[in-house]
Amino acid sequence: MVLKISSWFSFFSLLFLETKECNLLCYFHVCLILDFGKYIAFNGLLQLIIYTKEKNAILFTYPPTGSVTSTGLVVSSKLPRFSDLYTLTIESADPKSISAGKPVEFTKSVTQWFTKDGVLVEGLFWNDVEALIDDYAAEPKKKK
Fold first, then answer.
1. Averaged pLDDT score across all residues of the chain
2. Using only C-alpha atoms, what is the Rg of the chain?
3. CA of 28: how far to CAs of 1, 23, 32, 144, in Å?
4. How many alpha carbons fall within 13 Å on the CB side of residue 72?
């Protein structure tokens, strides 16, 4: 629509003396529309990457400094709809690596971490998260 108006003004410039301002205004609108199209295209690409690569991940880490492992961690969480069971998973960012540990997870009811008034007791949640981190960091016991 804006292009039609702009081109009409440019062809019939004898009738309108101030077409330059209108053309600049229409050009500005067209640029905004094209930028919005780029935004939609790149946002769609980003959503595709998130859907295929990240899945339920909420955190990606680098390997700890001074660590012998060469891979970081991926922390993912899941809380299904209409369910009170929360699942937290810690796994290696590169599961094919030799230094990758086995994935660990816990599934617990979220009601364990809240008071009767609905306030999160952060300490209880962190205790469970730290126990999960310790489980991941623990070396697997060798069988004799």
1. 78
2. 28
3. 14, 8, 6, 75
4. 7
